Amino acid sequence: MVSDARRAAQVTRAEVEDLLYREAALLDEWRLDEWLGLLTADACYRVPSNDRPDAEPADTLFTIADDPSRIRARVARLKDRNAHAEYPPSRTRRMISNVRIVERSEYELGVEANFVVYRFRRDERIREYVGRYRHLLRLEGGRLKIAKREAVIDAMELGSLGSVSFIL
Amino acid sequence: MPDQPLILQDAAAHTFQVHRSTLADPAILEREQRRIFDVCWIYLGHASEIRAPGDFRTRTICGRPILFCRDGRGAIRAFLNTCRHRGAIVCREPEGNAKGYQCFYHGWSYDRDGNLDGVPGQDSYGTSFKKSEHGLKEVPRLASYRDFVFLSFDPAAPALDEYLAGAKEYIDLVVDQSPSGEMEVVQGVQAYDIRANWKLLVENSFDDYHLLTTHSTWLDYLKNAGVQMRRPDRGHLLPAHGIGRDLGNGHACVDNVNFRGRPVARWIPIYGEDAKAEIDAIRAELVARLGEERAARVADTNRNLVVFPNLVLNDGSSVTIRTFHPVAPDRMHVRAWALGPKEESASARARRLDSFLTFYGPGGFATPDDVEALEMVQAGLGAYREVPWSILSRGMNKPGEQLNTDELHLRAFWLQWDKLMRTPGHGE
């Protein structure tokens, strides 16, 4: 990583947005293997419980707290047509806005963004997942990758959203 | 409300059928509210969720707003969270610690013990008005067993101890995991709706027959992680021996030899090599405290317990408290918490929670598929008038031990349900 010519200081918001939009497109199109390519090898993926949005999964029950191996197992599961909750796959459409770089170290950036993910399943009414992303991005070989992605849902509880069976 | 029997049982023909209107008809739900939820002991919460005097949680239980709290002396209380003046919710926060509770509408205030202690402009009520008669109303019955707190809206309900019957043995097995005998609810609640009748989740919570097909991706995940998945012998559908048991009063369970790992205390490769030593130490503590036999009982079996009507304790890859309330015939609200020994180390606690998420919850590798299954059943029930009966007969063709993949335990639930539904409730 020391060989990385580029530093986090040189990364623009537009570049961060490009990454988030590309990620959103891959997830909406269920191109999950390509999505894995956007993550660092040690990436984690978290969705905190609605009543403890700022907690850590070591001492708090989360909705999702995947380490790198479980992210890959999750993708393997979702590609299997026996992942019944997502077969046939939900249709999703992600809107991402209010993108901000909130922190920079030498090779890493803390990024926050608002999201609305619309999910359509069967003939049911729309389900709207509203919240914010708290991501940690890292430069690897000059390329921005996602080292940590956390999706914090604003709803007081999941309630009628039901499951988070797709990748939020 | 149909007049015909809702359960058809024929021991000679080995058949047990449940009428599907029980899962779809609004008149059935109306009757359940009077004859089941207003009569039974209903899980309210765990003592560890409110620790100090003034700690509170607000919950909706059987449609009633409940203030679950510790009073000024630290005793557990449950008040109907509605102002005696005009009905507004008095405590509007989900949790916290309070010196007292004030209704914001007209300002009536209550102390931690529920006594009415402040009425703005009290002189306008005249001398017959006595504050002592207008404290927060308590639920008719409140009792706990090993820190699991239950309420009943039936003043004449039997003692909780008697009500729990054989379920106590299985609650004891959960609590015995803790060296001090104290378990605690971990912070973070999973609260989500399922578009299905509440009884479908009762069935699903201890229906081991569905694992192979509904949860094949989870079983694949375990296998890929190195968990031993060979089946013991013919007749078994799962990698270990398991039985179903009727525990009386509608409570029932599956009781299985563990294959999927247990934080207390059976290592599987998913926990990582680093965890082996700690799990060995947890196991040694169990043996020292409980003896070999009881320790093995606690550590080497998984039990999914249904406490009639709507409490589930899943003691397997983690300990889950799950409770659910119908909000419509085809919709329920579910809440689930993780439970662990109070003195658990930080690393063991993290492992417990990680293990919880591999299977359970709205983002787990299995629960979402259960939700899908229940919602697909509910959709299928649209045809209940044309296809009126569901089949719950597994195991009736053989005497003696009933497997976890048989349906004795489901029938135990349904028989109690049927009995109560034919008995007028206390308010009728």
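Chain B touches chain A at residues 94, 186-195, 213-214, 216-218, 220-221, 224-225, 333, 337-338, 346, 349-350, 353-354, 356-358, 361-363, 365, 367-369, 371-373 (CB under 8 Å).
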